[in-house]
Design a protein that fits this description.
Elements: E1 3-7, E2 10-13, E3 18-25, E4 34-39, E5 46-51, E6 58-60, E7 68-73, E8 78-83, E9 92-98, H1 108-111, E10 120-121, E11 125-130
Parallel strand pairs: 2-11
Antiparallel strand pairs: 1-3, 3-8, 4-5, 4-9, 5-6, 7-8, 9-10, 9-11
Length: 131
């Protein structure tokens, strides 16, 4: 059974930092394209950042470039999202996700923004940024 479990969310003040974690079981993260998504009330779920299975390519949404960093610890089978200089606009439920295609060749720029390209999902962790 595939499970993705997010942690690390919480309430922080603007310009603060959080580090989100996504621990996977039932699949090895470095065999799949993986990423972080977020969804704010009344808005569609959007791709925030993605990392391809080999670790050779990353994608960041324009709104989080420079501020956020995606990384992976293969030994722990865990995906991270380091979020710095947080803004109230970053407030959302954050989800980690993985594609279902083993070592798939994926154009991250084209695929990451759209949740339909990802088949495995965690239950999310809430990030709230106060001003």
């Amino acid at each position: 059974q595939v499970q993705l479990v997010e942690s690390g969310g919480g309430l922080v003040q603007a310009v603060g930092s959080l580090r989100l974690s996504c621990t996977a079981s039932g699949l090895t993260l470095d065999d799949y394209n993986i990423g972080w998504f977020r969804q704010a009330p009344g808005k569609e779920r959007e791709g925030v950042s993605c990392l391809n299975w080999s670790g050779s390519s990353t994608y960041y949404a324009d709104s989080v470039k420079v501020r956020f960093t995606i990384s992976r610890d293969n030994a722990k089978n865990t995906l991270y999202l380091q979020m710095n200089r947080l803004k109230p606009e970053d407030t959302a439920m954050y989800y980690c996700a993985a594609t279902t295609y083993y070592r798939g060749g994926l154009n991250l720029k084209q695929a990451c923004p759209f949740q339909g390209n990802f088949g495995y999902w965690g239950q999310g962790t809430q990030v709230t940024v106060s001003s």
